[in-house]
Amino acid sequence: LAPTPAASASGCPASGVVVEMGPVQTAMFHRAVTLTLVNCGKKPYHVHGYPSVRALGDDGERIPVPVNAGGSMFGNDEGPEDVELKPGASVTSTLAWVSTQEGGDLIEGDALEIAAAPDTGARVFPLEGHDIRLMDELNTTAWRTAPAG
User: Fold this and answer.
1) 30-57: per-residue pLDDT in tens?
2) DSSP per-residue letters across the chain
3) How confident is the model at residue 101 (pLDDT cuts 50, 70, 90)?
4) pLDDT tens for each residue of 14-27
5) Domain spanning 16-140, CATH architecture
């Protein structure tokens, strides 16, 4: 049996969109992941703005890590654009975090709660590994369509 893709009709939430988190990219004192928002529904979905991101502690409770709209060393934030996602289409955002001693108190997070927007259902992504869990702030770029070829 072939594995069922995450965006199958049976796994598609009522919002009609699902968020995926890619592998972690690393650079000195910085970490980032690409978030992908896929329209898994049967109707167009309107996207405008930034993903909703919250850090979670080991008990699943939200922890006080600031989330800023803006770019990072992994990419500039070009700001939000209005996008109508047709079924099967996607947009991406870069989520970066900084974990430097100079940045203030480092907070150890065990997971990230990520949603397309505050009013859509969130998914929880465990943070496995070593220093990836230490953060003092998170930065996100707006949802954008991938540049053409």
Assistant:
1) 788 999 999 999 999 999 999 999 989 8
2) -PPPPTTSGGG--TTSEEEEE-PPEEETTEEEEEEEEEE-SSS-EEE-S--EEEEE-TTS-B----EEES-BTTB-------EEEPTT-EEEEEEEEE--GGGSS-EE-SEEEEESSTTS--EEEE--SSGGGEESEEEEPPPBPPPP-
3) low
4) 889 999 999 888 77
5) Sandwich (2.60)
Domain residue ranges of the chain, discontinuous segments joined by +? 16-140
User: Is the full-model pTM beyond 0.85?
Assistant: no
User: Nearest CA to 53 among 71, 45, 65?
Assistant: 65
The encoded tokens of residue 124 equal 């929880």
